[in-house]
Amino acid sequence: MPDGPPPEELHLSQRPAVTEPIPGPRSSDLLERQAASEANTVAYPLSLPVAIDSARGATIKDVDGNVFLDFSAGIGVANVGHSNPYVVEAAKEQLDAVAHTIDFPTEARLAFIDALDSIAPGTLPGNSRIAFGGPTGTNAIEASIKLAKYNTGRSGIVGFDRGYHGGTMGALSLSGWSSYKSDYTPLLPDVAHVPYPTPRDGETPDAALEATLEEVRAVVSGRASGLDEPPAGIWVEPIQGSGGVIVPPEGFLAELAEITAAHDVLLIVDEIQTGMGRTGEWFASDHAGITPDAMTVGKAIGGVGLPLSATVYREELDTWGPSAHAGTFRGHVPAMVAGTRAIEYIDEYDLLDRATRVGSYLQDRFREMQQDCPSLVDVRGRGLLIGAEFRDADGSPLPDVVESIQTRCLRRGLVVWTAGIEGHVLRLLPPLVLTDEQARVGMDIVQDVVETVTEETADGR
Ligand SMILES: Cc1ncc(COP(=O)(O)O)c(C=O)c1O
User: Looking at the record, which segments are called Disordered (predicted)?
Assistant: First the structure.
């Protein structure tokens, strides 16, 4: 039973404390030094120009002493809060004992495998195998591609338009973002994409779902998309996170599971962003009551941001042999200890319920804003994964509005993130330990900023 502090006591403060300008002088100095030395691939400080000193719970302190509320959790990583002491203390003990054990057994490793198995969706608990490769979510996706090809003897892989599965060649092949891919083609052969079920132009959710399922049926039977036989697997995000927090119509995952099972095609559910309680269940697959053939996890499973990912799959698929998915870092043991502790902490403090409750509050606040902001065209999400979509009167996406909201929120002491291929969705994914007061204070800032920015846009300023 955890003796860690309750969620309310994890934070630096309940409200932000910032002094303009943002970035302050010390942040500016570090940002300049970084720009002079690090690669052009650095991206986050371009949108959120601060240098971080420390972080606790749902709060971040920059090097100038400004304290921000964090509604992004390091992009869905710090689910139990930054530097949660219950997690950190055990990870430190493990570091003192040994950090690197390749894939030799340790008590900590086996405890984590048991803990992850116990929270896996559907009938996986007690019937799963877990593969560790490199520490990133992307690597878990690569492992799952190999697993599906190996078990089916087929080469085709299928993803969804606007899906995001990571940055290496296999994961990128599955992703549905052409802007990330076009400079690096050719990627993997035998890849098809089908539309995610998103109602368009007045279409009903049922019609969008049926249109998607029709495409999926065509693809799995080898009748479409240039694959000359059924694919090895279909990879799906249960909610598309980076693609714009797109929540599919009810029944989508269950129907997908039925179709793939009937055609002996594997269903791989990518829970890297939606897992570890983010949507109010341990995994978003739980909402649909399905058992994925395989599930990829990453981001929050390393407890407090220690890098760890895994591919969890039905044990019948464990047909491959030693080093079938190799890597020096095959599960980092301090990260595993942190993951076990994070699972205990989520359980002890009912963070799944909290994600549902606080998430509803955040969505309600956005819905109130919709009364006065016609450009806030949609609010959606589940638990603490929430998207607010902005479009103009003609239906064109408004990425500049979202960027301006993000910048101004930062100046007021609130870190928010974005989503959508067009960048027109404001994405909130705070730590699950966000307090009611932090939720209220943060949404007061969002509301003020959204009203100001959308009024200015309407005035043509
Ligand atoms: C759904 C999903 N899959 C895969 C990835 C890739 O994970 P990583 O960035 O840890 O490689 C991400 C990252 O955002 C993601 O959201």
Answer: 1-26
Same domain, yes or no, for 294 and 443?
no
CA-to-CA distance for 173 and 175, rounded, in angstroms? 6
Cα separation, 165 vs 163, whole angstroms: 7
| Domain match, 115 and 23 both | no
- Domain membership of residue 2 (yes or no) is no
Looking at the structure of the chain, the number of domains it has is: 2
What amino acid occupies position 336? M
Maximum alpha-carbon separation in the chain: 64
Residue 220 counted as domain residue? yes
CA of 243 to the centre of ligand 1 (A): 11
- Of 11, 278, 299, which is closest to residue 164 (Cα–Cα)? 299
Q: Which CATH number characterizes residue 176's domain?
A: 3.40.640.10
Residues 288 and 429 in one domain: no
Q: Which helix (H) or strand (E) holds 402?
A: helix 399-411
1 within some domain: no
Share of the chain above pLDDT 70, in %: 98
Which residues, judged by CB distance below 6 Å to any ligand atom, belong to the binding site of ligand 1? Answer: 136-138, 141, 164-166, 237, 241-242, 270, 272-273, 298
Residues 340 and 374 in one domain: no
Residue type, 371: Q
Helices and strands, number each (H, E), in the chain: 15, 15
Q: How large is the average pLDDT for residues 169-192?
A: 94
Looking at ligand 1, which residue's alpha carbon is closest to its atom 7? 137
Provide the token pair at 277. Answer: 């309680």
Boundary residue ending a domain (318, 333, 348) = 348
Tokens 């995610």 found at: 196
Q: Residue 131 has which token pair?
A: 């593969």
d(C-alpha 145, C-alpha 157), whole Å: 8
Give the SS3 label for residue 269.
strand
- Cis upstream peptide for 199 (omega within 30°): no
Among 348, 367, 390, the domain-final residue is 348
Domain of residue 59: give its range.
7-77+351-459
For residue 118, the number of C-alpha atoms closer than 13 Å in the C-beta half-sphere is 11
**Domain identity same for 291 and 429:** no
328 within 8 A of 302, measured Cβ to Cβ: no
User: Ligand 1 mean position to 137 CA, how many Å?
Assistant: 5
**310 and 186 in one domain?**
yes
**Span 243-265, average pLDDT:** 97
Reply yes or no on whether the pLDDT at 226 is more than 70: no
In this structure, the dihedral spanned by the alpha carbons of residues 1, 116, 248 and 237, taken in order and rounded to 10 degrees, is 140
What is the percent of the chain where pLDDT is above 90?
A: 93
Tell me which residue has tokens 């998607």.
212
Q: Identify which of 164, 172, 276, 429 to mutate to test ligand 1's pocket (most ligand atoms within 8 A of the CB).
A: 164
